[in-house]
Amino acid sequence: MAAPDEILYAWGPGESRLGLMSGGRVVEIAIARPALVAGAVFLGRVAEMAPALDAAFVELGLERPGFLPGAAALGISRGQAVLVQVRADAQGGKGPVLTARPTLAGRWLAFAPLAPGIALPPDLPPDAAERLTVLAARLAEPGGGLLLTDAAAGRGEDELAAELESLRAEWAAIDQARAQARAPALLWRPDPLARLLAAHPGVARVRVDDAAAYAQARRRFGPLVEHRRGGEVAGEVDEALDAALAPVVALPGGGRLAIEPTLALTAIDVDSGGGRPAEANRAAVEAIARQLRLRAIGGQVAVDFIPGGGKASLFKLAGALKRAVAADPVPTHVFGVGPLGLVELTRERRGPALAELFCERDSRRTAAAAATAALRRAVAEAAHRPGRALALTLAPEVTAALARLPEAVAEAEARIGRKLTLRAEPGRGRDDILVEDLP
C-alpha cells in the first residue's frame, strides 16, 4: 500500500472526522471528540498504586482513571500530583493508558522535554544519518530530547529549527498551565489535524469543508490546506465511515467478508458467495489487511477462510496475510493456523475501534422475537379485557416482523376470539409493546 498522501477533514460540532487517503481511497478514519484525549497532557493525581503490576492508577478528571505503567521507577505515591500524557484512549471498559514522559510531535521531529538525548530512525542511509546527527546536535538544548523522523532527512536546518521552536513554545505553555493548575486538570490537547499530519508527514494535501476550520488550519499549515464547499469532504468521509461500520464487505468475484467484533476478539468469516473458494480466499487477504486498519481493530483476530486444499493452503493464506499487514503502521502479528483451522493474529490496541465509538453492544431481542412477545402480551391482556377489540402499538420493525408471521397472528386472533389491529409508531423501542382497547 502506498504511503498516505491526502487528508479529508470534516469538521462538526462535538465531533470531527478525518479520513486518511492513499491512492484515492480512505485507509484510516480518525475521530475527534471531547472525550477522546489521546496525546493530551494532564496534571493527574495518583489514586491507587498497583505494585503487582508495577503501575499506578491516575485520576484525570475523566470517567475512568488512567493506567500508568512503570510506576516504581517514577518514585510516586498515592495522592501525589503527576504530569502524564495519554498514549491510548480508554476502551473496552478500561481507562486510558498513560506515560510520564510526554512527547510533542511535529511533522519532521518530536520534542521530548523530559527525556534528554537524540534519536534517529534506524534505517537511514549513513550520509543522511550523519547529517541529521550534526543538525540535531546544533538544535538540541540541555534537558530536552529530539526524535527525528525519516521525513526529516529531506528538510533543511531552518525548517527543522522552526518546527522545534513551535514545539518548545507549546511545552512552555503546558509548563505554565501546570504551575497554575490543581490536579486533576487537562493542561493541553493536540489539534486532531496536527496529530494526523505528524503521524503521516508525506501527506501533500488537506481538504477541509468548514470555512472556520479551514481558516484555522490554513494559518497553521499554509498552502497544504484547501477549502471545499458543498459538503464534498463530509460526504466522502461519511461514505467511508458507513462502509467501515458495515458488518459485511463485498469481495471481487462475488465473495464477501463478515466481520463480527466481540468482547474477546474480532471474528472474520470468508464466504465465496457462490464463486470459487480459492479466488475468494485470495481476495480476502488484501481486504482483511485494509479493514483492520480502516476499522481501527485491535486485539485478537480470528479469520475463518473457506476450507479446501488442506492445512497447506491455510498456511499459504496465513503467509500472504502476514505480508499484507506488513505495511500497517500499527504492529500486527500473524501467528499462523490454530488447531481449529482459523488463522490467528493480533493487532496492537491504540484506542477504541470505530465500532466501539459508533455502535452499541447490547442484548436486545431481535425484531422477530419482539413480535412473538407482542402476541403473547396480547393474549395475556385479552383475558382481562373480554369482548373488547385490541390494538398492538409497536416499533415499525416489529410490526414488519409480524407481517411476516401471518400464521402466528392468526393463531393469536383465534385464541382471543377477535381481530388484532397492528399500529407502527416511529421512535418506539423494539421492546416497548403497548396493548390498547379500540373504541
Kindly describe this structure:
With 439 residues, the protein is of the alpha+beta class. It has 4 domains: 1-37 and 189-239, ATPase, nucleotide binding domain (Nucleotidyltransferase, domain 5, 2-Layer Sandwich); 41-100, Nucleic acid-binding proteins (OB fold (Dihydrolipoamide Acetyltransferase, E2P), Beta Barrel), CATH 2.40.50; 246-349; 367-437. The chain contains 12 helices and 24 strands. Strands 4, 5, 6, 7, 8 and 13 form a 6-stranded antiparallel beta sheet that branches. It has a 6-stranded mixed beta sheet with strand order 16-17-18-19-21-20, covered by helices on one side. The chain has a 5-stranded mixed beta sheet with strand order 3-2-1-14-15, sandwiched between helices. The longest helix has 24 residues, at 157-180. The mean pLDDT is 90.
Number of domains: 4
Low-confidence regions: none
* Global shape: globular
Helix-and-strand structural type = alpha+beta
Biggest sheet, open or closed, and with what strands and sense? 6 strands, antiparallel
Say what oligomer this is: single chain
End-to-end separation in angstroms reads 67 Å
Count the strands?
24
Instruction: Let me know the average pLDDT.
Output: 90
Q: If you compute it from the alpha carbons, what radius of gyration comes out, rounded to the nearest whole angstrom?
A: 28 Å
- Count of discrete alpha- or pi-helical segments spanning 4 or more residues: 12
Strand content: 25-35%
Helical residue percent? 25-40%
Task: Compose a concise summary of this entry.
By secondary structure, the chain is of the alpha+beta class. Helices cover 34% and strands 27% of the residues. The mean pLDDT is 90.
